[in-house]
Specification:
TIM Barrel; single chain; 8 helices; 8 strands; alpha/beta; eight-stranded parallel sheet; globular; 38% helix
Length: 226
């Protein structure tokens, strides 16, 4: 089975989203993440959902978690709940979310699956900390546990891959390192048991440092599984 790829939608308005989804449909990916916090205007989530048959993840990342949403927390979460109501298959909730269990319960009640995410933008901790975070995410009701850190050395990639190898036997996991030094983990994470890896639709549309384009990562996987 080839590794799954999640393409990231970073459009600022409906027309840009529509154009990106048309491109994504031709790229042979497995799912797509809609970064709501990139929007410069309100959009109809039902219309976005109608543009593709791919499973969609709704993410509305606040500034403190590396995103662009400046909305009050209650309003930011309500936007995610609207995406769930519109039929988005997955909703990304940060582990730091206040009243997280209540948010998880609401997301599930609306028919979506919660991804609970944790980001460390400064470093990659020891593997033991990964498992502590993982256990918190599982306890909170995550359907997919996401832990992303910043690579400061090539060895950090090995830490993430060791974590994935052990944790993916217990739950669905997405984990890798950001930054140029973390590209190896982005490529190998699904091979070691990760649910999928993220990729940009095209150059200049990356949502994080070190993120490859779908075309580049697909070529690498094609070489491995030729």
């Amino acid at each position: 089975m080839k590794p799954k790829i999640c393409a990231v939608i970073t459009g600022k308005n409906f027309e840009e989203i529509k154009t990106m989804l048309k491109t994504i449909e031709k790229l042979n990916v497995d799912l797509a993440e809609f970064r709501i916090d990139y929007l410069k205007e309100e959009v109809d989530f039902l219309k976005v959902k109608s543009l593709t048959s791919l499973p969609l993840i709704a993410t509305n990342r606040p500034i403190g978690e590396g995103g662009f949403s400046k909305k009050p927390e209650e309003e930011r979460l309500e936007t995610l709940f609207k995406a769930a109501e519109a039929g988005f298959e997955y909703i990304d909730l940060e582990l730091s979310t206040k009243n997280l269990k209540e948010a998880v319960k609401k997301v599930k009640g609306l028919g979506s699956k919660p991804i609970i995410s944790f980001h460390d933008f400064s470093s990659t901790p020891p593997v033991q900390k990964f498992f502590k975070i993982f256990n918190k995410e599982v306890k909170a009701g995550a359907e997919i546990c996401k832990i992303v850190t910043m690579a400061k050395s090539l060895e950090d990639n090995l830490t993430v891959l060791r974590f994935i190898w052990g944790s993916s036997k217990k739950s669905r996991v997405v984990s890798f390192c950001m930054g140029k030094l973390g590209i190896i983990s982005r490529i190998l994470s699904p091979i070691f048991g990760g649910e999928y890896t993220y990729a940009a639709v095209q150059p200049g549309k990356e949502s994080a440092e070190g993120q490859l384009t779908v075309e580049k990562i697909r070529k690498i996987y094609d070489l491995i599984w030729c």
